[in-house]
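call fold(seq) -> tokens
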Amino acid sequence: MSETPRLLRALAGETLDRPPVWFMRQAGRSLPEYLELRTRAKDFISFCHNPEMAAEATLQPMRRFPMDAAIVFADILLIPGALGQEVWFEAGEGPRLGELPDIARMADAVEGSTAKLSAIGETLARVRAELEPERALIGFAGAPWTVATYMIEGRGSQREMARTFAYEQPEKLDALLQVLVDSTARYLVMQAKSGAQALQIFESWAEGLAEDVFERIVIRPHRAIVEQVRAAGVTAPFIGFPRGAGALVENYAKAVPVQGVGLDTQASAAMGQRIQAGGKTIQGALDNLLLRAGGPALDARVDALLEQWGGGPYIFNLGHGVIPDTPIANIARVVSRVTGKPVKAMAAE
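ret:
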């Protein structure tokens, strides 16, 4: 059997006997061993910047489940911190960010920002050294628009302030997005050089955007990131995930030179098939709430997704990340159903 990771084969356009499977936010959150590990860190940012602990969090789900890929344990808001904006996490409430720094000053900080994120490179190197060769390692970054929404608003929200900012101060937003494109591209190059074999761009907040705005603040920055990473000599495949884009995901698939396109829960069977027919691998779109709920409806949906998209290049995943209180048994059931491998015997004690 080829040791080329199943995920990389799917991203190269192969239609496999069964799709590779991994879950967004599979590292941590729902696992008791993660929760215990988390208590050892001073705070969440320190956790992400501790290679030993972050590598352990990355590997924990790989020990429990026969996932085909690991995704590095990090956070999409590490780049603002590297650019000079204060970032912290409030227990039970999520991220908080200080005042948006001067954009010209952040532009000057881009070149040195990757050095401030070197711990993530060390995490990737540690994981790649321990992970079996047939299992892929994914690096990632938050997309510029998504990261910008947090930088502008100072926290997670409904993003009304950031969208208004996009209309009222378009030149300032474009300048901020360019800073984030440049810093994100450098960050992903570093990740690839440290052991990441595939790279995912997370656009968590692509919903609610008019077509012209979507083109300007989602498609163009994603395309620019891929082009900069390729110009640096990195050949690792990209997965782009514009969550909430609805029908505009087809525009994205045609315009952005990624190998894989992440689909969220609302994606139709026909839409996914059209993207496959256009030469792209698709990923998603199991509802994370259904994963948490479990039962016969979960089994039926897994089977339906495998049936509707298994005739083309496809990666089995969720339409969003694992919810913290998702029963481990439900995750095991889905992974076993996709892979055909028993999972209970692999569960950590």
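The chain is about 50% helix and 10% strand.
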